[in-house]
Amino acid sequence: MKNFRNDGMNVTGNDNKVALITGGATGIGACCSRAMAQRGYNIVINYFDYPEQAEKVVSECENLGVRAIAVYGDVSADQECRNVVARAVETFGGIDALICCAATTQFTQLTDLENQNSEDFLRIYGVNVIGIYQMARASAPYLKKSNNGAIVNFSSIASQNGSGSSLGYIASKGAVNSLSFALAKMLAPNVRVNCVLPGFVNTNWFLDYVGQERLDQIKGEFAQNSALQDICEPEEIAQAVVFLAIDATKTTGQLLLSDAGSTLGPSIEYSPTN
Questions:
Q1: Does residue 269 belong to any structural domain of this protein?
Q2: Is residue 123, in this structure, part of any structural domain at all?
Q3: What pLDDT does residue 45 have?
Q4: Given 41, 173, 258, 262, which residue is catalytic?
Q5: Helices marked H in the chain — which ranges?
Q6: Distance between CA 260 and CA 47 in Å, rounded?
Q7: Angle of CA points 119, 122, 123, to nearest 5°
Q8: How far apart are CA 89 and CA 83, in angstroms?
Q9: Are 43 and 19 in contact (CB under 8 A)?
Q10: Collapsed DSSP state (helix, strand, coil) of residue 153
């Protein structure tokens, strides 16, 4: 297979840079794929489901003037992680940014402690936590060779406020934060590792579980109770990822909240006294 690393393409000064995005075919991951392509990175889209959507995002990235491929792989399986990385390196010659968007959950009532068992927790941890570790481990030798190697992991405000789709999901995102701190220390000074913590994002993540009518209600409730009176669009989360992956060259081991101010709560309105 042809190696494109030294082909000479230059879009925005990041010619021949390579970004590997897990879960890069749908939702926030797809937005991250396109956003990194806009900055001139060649794109490796790892997917587990939705192969047609993965190929669609490949075409969208190519239309932005970069090269892109889609690679199947289950990040909870170590050998498949190594295979995805090997395919990326075989095609493009290296990896400069690893963006770990792949995640899973189980929608439950948080008030019922009997609705998740150890197998449910392990399945969620396998993707959300162990998957990040395995992808980081497989990518590390190549990220260290980059002059701006970076890992951006996806956590959630669920790790901060104890509320989310399930206890297993909430706990897994807390583990992602700790894992990101540890990786930042272990891979320094060659590789930066940071974490994005989105709040409620305007995607279909909840749609199948709650239905469109309830989803619209939830969006309104989150917007009403956030300082910015809004919710985030997936493209806005992707811009936070791009900042950490490319621009924040002296930032590592950090958690970046991107939640429209939902952790702050609504603004305090007052009238000045005379």
A1: no
A2: yes
A3: 99
A4: 173
A5: 27-38, 51-63, 78-92, 118-125, 131-143, 158-161, 167-187, 207-224, 234-242
A6: 28
A7: 85
A8: 10
A9: yes
A10: strand
Q: Give domain status of residue 138, yes or no.
A: yes
Neighbours of 201 (CB within 10 A): 22
Amino acid residing at 209: Y
Are 253 and 180 a contacting pair, CB within 8 Å? yes
Catalytic residue among 169, 180, 226, 258: 169
- For residue 11, give the DSSP letter: S
* 169 catalytic per annotation: yes
The whole-angstrom separation of Cα 165 and Cα 154 is: 15
Q: Which residues of the chain have pLDDT under 50?
A: 1-2, 4-11, 270-272, 274
Read off the pTM.
0.90
* Amino acid identity at 122: L
d(CA 122, CA 119): 5
Report whether 25 contacts 45 (CB < 8 A): yes
Domain that holds residue 130: 18-258
**What pLDDT, on a 0 to 100 scale, did the predictor assign at position 219?**
84
Looking at the structure of the chain, the number of domains it has is: 1
pLDDT of residue 220: 86
Question: Are 236 and 264 contacting, i.e. CB atoms less than 8 angstroms apart?
Answer: no
Cα diameter, the chain:
75
Predicted local confidence at residue 13, as pLDDT: 60
2 labelled catalytic: no
- Asked if residue 29 lies in contact with residue 102, where contact means CB atoms within 8 angstroms, the answer is yes
Q: Is 173 a catalytic residue?
A: yes
Pick the catalytic residue from 156, 159, 165, 172: 156
> Which among 182, 218, 238 is positioned nearest to 19, based on CA atoms?
238
What is the total residue count of the chain? 274
The number of helix segments (H) and strand segments (E) in the chain equals 9, 7
Question: What CATH number does residue 242 fall under?
Answer: 3.40.50.720
Amino acid at 271: S
Asked if the structure places residue 267 within a domain, the reply is no
